[in-house]
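Budget justification aside, the reviewers requested a transparent look at the raw inputs and outputs of the sequence design task funded under Objective 1. We therefore reproduce one unedited record. The lines immediately below are the structure tokens for a 380-residue chain.
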């Protein structure tokens, strides 16, 4: 007589963890969680309340005299049609061109520098790595003061241009867009239509000459940091892969584009994400330098948030700008992640490789079929 026994096991709530390890983990992380809650989560929630209230900056934002105004502060920035909307639109336009020009340039330059200092034939690689990285560890305020001196009317940049016979511009006081090519006005279709209080003519005009100084400074100061990230990734790539590509007849550009760059995808995503976040949060260079001038062509959302809150005492609009900027950064990061995702190879592109594999398998099978016949017919 066969008998079967059924044993019941209580499912472990935390597989792989011994009793007490979960409590110990929470105990050791509790100080950092408390600090993050007090100095990060709570201030963010307070700022969110300020953005939907009429708090004037005096007393507690949770006092009885502070009223809930809903999305009024956001509407004033996006749909108000007044000075607040025009300033916010101008700051978005300035910062958007800043991002468009800085992020690709600093990424390409940092990757180029990483490939350069990673070459074995380069002598003094340690010196060049230090030299390229040094501007990244220098105070942003000191770098800004240096660039203000270099790009002044009688500065070193205009002096160097003068030696070449070029009359340098008044860099930090020129509000004209570099894509306007000296034109003072555009067609009516562009000048009479507006978005966020800024005409289409100004949107497509590119950054101002003054903003170009900050663009050059950002590329100069951040490329060294991202160079180290690319350098670490390049040194983790196996040399056998490069040797296999060389054996297949790939030249230097093909090895970089088809072999090296695909393996740098995670690092490329990190560099682009950090660059995107840093560019949308530019503040200290603007505060130290032109403070939004000339003609508000160097104002940015981060600086406008400070100006609205601490100078104009419009704390609700200042907090609203900060949260709009937060949403912009999140959206761009998600789009960037989607663009750099791993893609499956389509059937059309994969078909040649499938046909080659099928032909190779057929030849191998034919060779295997001929081998026994040859061995049977051989004299013993």
């Amino acid at each position: 007589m066969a008998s079967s026994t059924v044993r019941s096991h209580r499912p472990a709530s935390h597989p792989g963890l011994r009793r007490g390890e979960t409590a110990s983990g929470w105990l050791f992380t509790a100080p950092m969680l408390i600090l993050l809650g007090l100095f990060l989560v709570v201030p963010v929630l307070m700022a969110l309340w300020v953005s939907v209230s009429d708090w004037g900056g005096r007393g507690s934002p949770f006092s009885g005299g502070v009223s809930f105004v809903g999305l009024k502060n956001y509407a004033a920035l996006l749909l108000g049609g007044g000075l607040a909307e025009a300033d916010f639109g101008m700051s978005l336009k300035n910062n958007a061109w800043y991002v468009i020009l800085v992020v690709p340039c600093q990424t390409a330059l940092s990757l180029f520098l990483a490939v350069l200092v990673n070459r074995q034939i380069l002598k003094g690689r340690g010196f060049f790595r230090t030299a390229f990285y040094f501007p990244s560890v220098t105070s942003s305020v000191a770098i800004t003061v240096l660039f203000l001196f270099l790009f002044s009317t009688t500065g070193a940049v205009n002096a160097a241009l003068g030696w070449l016979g070029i009359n340098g511009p008044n860099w930090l006081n020129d509000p004209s867009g570099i894509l306007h090519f000296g034109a003072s006005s555009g067609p009516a279709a562009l000048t009479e239509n507006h978005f966020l209080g800024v005409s289409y003519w100004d949107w497509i005009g590119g950054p101002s000459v003054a903003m170009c100084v900050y663009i050059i400074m950002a590329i100069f100061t951040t490329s060294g940091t991202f160079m180290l990230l690319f350098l670490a990734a390049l040194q983790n790539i196996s040399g056998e892969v490069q040797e296999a590509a060389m054996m297949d007849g790939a030249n230097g550009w093909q090895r970089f584009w088809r072999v090296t760059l695909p393996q740098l995808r995670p690092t490329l995503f990190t560099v682009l994400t950090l660059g995107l976040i840093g560019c949308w949060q530019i503040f200290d260079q603007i505060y130290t330098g032109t403070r939004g001038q000339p003609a508000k062509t160097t104002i940015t959302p981060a600086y406008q948030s400070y100006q609205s809150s601490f100078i104009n005492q419009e704390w609700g609009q200042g907090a609203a700008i900060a949260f709009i900027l937060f949403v912009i950064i999140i959206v761009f990061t998600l789009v960037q992640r989607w663009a750099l995702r791993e893609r499956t190879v389509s059937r059309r592109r994969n078909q040649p490789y499938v046909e080659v594999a099928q032909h190779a398998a057929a030849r191998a099978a034919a060779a295997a079929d001929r081998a026994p016949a040859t061995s049977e017919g051989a004299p013993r």
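The first helix runs from residue 21 to 51. The first strand starts at residue 194 and ends at 195. Computational costs for records of this kind are itemized in the attached budget.
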